[in-house]
Write a structure and sequence with these properties.
Blueprint (H helix, E strand, L loop, with lengths): L9 H14 L4 H12 L3 H9 L4 H6 L14 E2 L2 E2 L6 H17 L4 H4 L6
Antiparallel strand pairs: 1-2
Helix pairs in contact: 1-5, 2-5
Protein name: DUF2200 domain-containing protein
Pfam families: DUF2200 (PF09966)
Length: about 120
């Protein structure tokens, strides 16, 4: 059975990512930069995905270019070690969660974006 998050609209979770970042003095622009780095969406493409209220499955399946450096994302989020998540879609979602966590914890953008490499 597919996890409930797969059919959850990305647009419903996106404001939570932004709020988490802003509570820690970070910005919506930084959240967008992280999402764009991870997925290859540009500003317009990201806005379209949000406006169309696509689910997480569609959001990642439609991503223009999943960043090859995302495999460098390591660590624990929600009690789960991201590099050990076997289900591909859940791993992508956990990667995004981990990057937003790092932003909220005050990490520098170049470190979050794995040295700025893409």
């Amino acid at each position: 059975m597919a996890h409930r998050i797969y059919t959850t609209s990305f647009a419903s979770v996106y404001p939570l990512y932004v709020a988490k970042a802003e509570r820690k003095g970070r910005t919506k622009e930084e959240v967008d930069t992280i999402i764009e780095w991870l997925t290859g969406y540009d500003e317009t493409g990201l806005a379209r995905q949000i406006a169309d209220e696509v689910d997480f499955d569609t959001f990642f399946a439609s991503a223009p270019h999943l960043n090859e450096d995302r495999s460098l994302i390591k660590g624990v989020v929600c009690g789960v070690r991201v590099e050990n998540v076997e289900e591909p879609l859940m791993r992508e979602i956990r990667y995004l969660d981990k990057l937003i966590d790092e932003l909220a914890k005050g990490k520098k953008m170049e470190k979050i974006l794995r040295g700025g490499q893409s």
